[in-house]
Amino acid sequence: MTSPKIVSVEWGHMQVEGLQPGKDFKLYPGGGHEWDWSETGMRHHPGIQPEDVEELLAHGATVIVLSRGMDLKLEVDPATLDYLESKGVETHVAETELAVALYNDLAATRPVGGLFHSTC
User: Which residues form a coiled coil (predicted)?
Assistant: First the structure.
């Protein structure tokens, strides 16, 4: 099962293959949806928590890309990186445009998941 390609990203807007346009996305092998931060109570600080990535793993992602936003304001809690490492999941953290490029490259050959924030 392949992960959907991100067609475009600009401040506050993303287009993902097969999905309605939106602002932030949670993507994984076989699909994805707009990322609703309120699901887990996520905020810019302390940032992406282990529970934010569980859905990606549940859908078979063996590689995860986490975007920190266009201005790197979104943090990633070290506990999340420890959690993914304990699961043997290759993890990449980058500014959103770089994260999108990396995700699209990985999606061509691997079961990749990602969290993408298109502003700050």
Answer: none
